[in-house]
Structures are given as C-alpha cells and as structure tokens.
Design brief:
Strand order of the largest sheet: 2-3-5-7-9-12-15-18-21
Radius of gyration: 23 Å
Number of helices: 1
Pfam families: Hexapep
CATH superfamily: Hexapeptide repeat proteins
Protein name: Acyltransferase
Structural class: mainly beta
CATH topology: UDP N-Acetylglucosamine Acyltransferase, domain 1
Shape: globular
Order of helices and strands: EEEEEEEEEEEEEEEEEEEEEEEH
Keywords: Acyltransferase, Repeat, Transferase
Distance between the termini: 61 Å
InterPro entries: Hexapep (IPR001451), Hexapep_transf_CS (IPR018357), Hexapeptide_acetyltransf (IPR051159), Trimer_LpxA-like_sf (IPR011004)
GO molecular function: acyltransferase activity
C-alpha cells in the first residue's frame, strides 16, 4: 500500500495520481493507494478540512469540486474500489466526517450545495456479501447512488445503494434511504418515506433569530430550489452490478443429447 500524507500533486510508478494545484495541505490528510491507475482530482478551491481516501482496487476515480461559498468545509472518508467513481459537487458542506463508499464498479454522485450533518454514511455496498441459500446468488449487489443538488441530510442518516434523492429534499434524523426520493420533500424513517411534499429549505440557522422573525431574509432565498414535488420524475433504483447470466439447462446436457437436440431442431 502506498500512503500520501500531503495534499499536493502526486504520481507514482503504479499509475496512481493526485491532481491538485491548490495550497499544499498536511493536516488531516491521509490518501492510500492499494491498487493501480487510480486518480484523485481536487479543485484548488476546495475547502478541505479533513480527508481520508482509500483506493481499494484499480482504475478508481474521485472528483471533488470547488467551494466558492461559505460552508462548513469538506470532511470525508472516501472508499473507492475497482472501476468505481465518487463525484462531489461544488459548495458541499460537512458538519462532521461523512463516509462515502463506491466499490464493485458503481458510482456515487453528490450534487452541488448538499449539506451533510454529522455521522452520515453514503454507501453503495454492504461491505460483505449476502447470498440466497437456495440459488447461491448474491442477494446484495453493490448499486450506484445519486444525491441531487441542495439536499439536506440530517445527523446519523444513511443513504444505501440504489437510492436517489431529488433536488431540494430533506432527509430526517437517523433515516435510512433505500429507494428513490423525489425532489422538494421531507423523508424520514427506516426505511425513509416521504412525509411532506412541496417544501423548500434554506441554510441560515434559526438559533440566533428572534421569535416570530420573518423567513427567509432578503438575499437568503435560493429561488432555483423552490419547486413543487414531481413524483413522476422519480427514478427507480438500478442495480449497476449485473447478476451472472443464467445458463440454459441444455448447456449442462451430455454431448450425445446435445447432438440429438440439434438434429431434432433442424428436422
């Protein structure tokens, strides 16, 4: 395993690469390469506060976009496996370290202006396989995840493989998202279910506001995310890693039986 403890441009003889032209950072930086031909691309304007990256296979890619607005900073533990990708949009903020995992060829996409609270997990895999005893087939294949723009994910929430979350939505405290959640709604519970539609949320905190103060103040409203919920626009979850193809029963037959079957079909 190759380990890098500085955030700066880097390339090794295994084809692993860090593309970063910002200020060199050494505090709370831990980047590990266990395979080859992996690439970490970080905008020089990204506000990195705490970063642990582990590439567990080959040909993984992680992209982290810029921070141009006042945010809590980027605090991530990122795990990227063989042929997998993690993409984090601009102006994302994390109150605590957020864990994101993409392995077995899947992708995790985090849209712009997402707000992560503390102790969040976004995982396209379960780390360990589960099998159906009768068929022997994998019961929990890894799946891709898409978190839209301007999504608020509250403390201790988990987003599981196959989930999508539409723009402008809120995921409640300790919720577990397992399926598609539409835009501009509140979803809570385990598994998370929509409890309120046609909502919008804003970043300014209420803790310092006077009782009865009008919201939002001038300049606080993010107009582009004030939309009605579109249930018809919800994407169904898609299994990215396909199951092995079933072999036809005929393929297991003895050679004389196969020859007889071909003769009967041609007659």
């Amino acid at each position: 395993m190759l380990q890098v403890r500085k955030l700066e441009r880097y390339k090794d003889d295994q084809g692993n690469e860090i593309v970063y032209d910002g200020e060199v950072r050494e505090e709370k930086i831990d980047i590990r390469f266990k395979g080859a031909n992996n690439k970490l691309v970080i905008s020089p304007e990204a506000d990195i506060k705490d970063l642990l990256v582990i590439f567990t296979g080959n040909n993984g890619q992680i992209d982290i976009d810029r921070t141009t607005k006042r945010r809590a900073g980027l605090r991530f533990e990122l795990r990227c496996g063989h042929e997998s990708t993690i993409r984090i949009g601009e102006n994302v903020g994390c109150a605590g370290r957020t864990f994101i995992s993409a392995v077995e060829g899947v992708s995790v996409t985090i849209g712009a202006d997402v707000m992560f609270a503390k102790n969040i997990e976004v995982r396209g895999d379960d780390t360990h396989p589960i099998f159906d005893v009768r068929s022997g087939k994998r019961a929990n294949p890894s799946q891709s995840i898409v978190v839209g723009e301007h999504v608020w994910i509250a403390k201790h929430a988990v987003v599981m493989g196959g989930a999508t979350i539409g723009n402008g939505s809120v995921i409640g405290f300790r919720s577990i998202v397992t399926k598609a959640i539409p835009n501009n709604c509140v979803a809570v519970g385990a598994p998370a279910k929509v409890v309120k539609r046609n909502i919008a949320w804003e970043r300014p905190e209420v803790v310092s506001r006077l009782p009865g103060e009008e919201f939002p103040r001038k300049g606080e409203k993010s107009e582009q995310y004030w939309n009605l919920t579109d249930d018809d626009g919800v994407q169904e979850k898609v299994v990215v890693r396909p199951q092995p193809k079933k072999r036809r029963l005929a393929s297991y037959a003895p050679a004389p039986v196969k020859r007889l079957a071909r003769k009967l079909r041609s007659s």
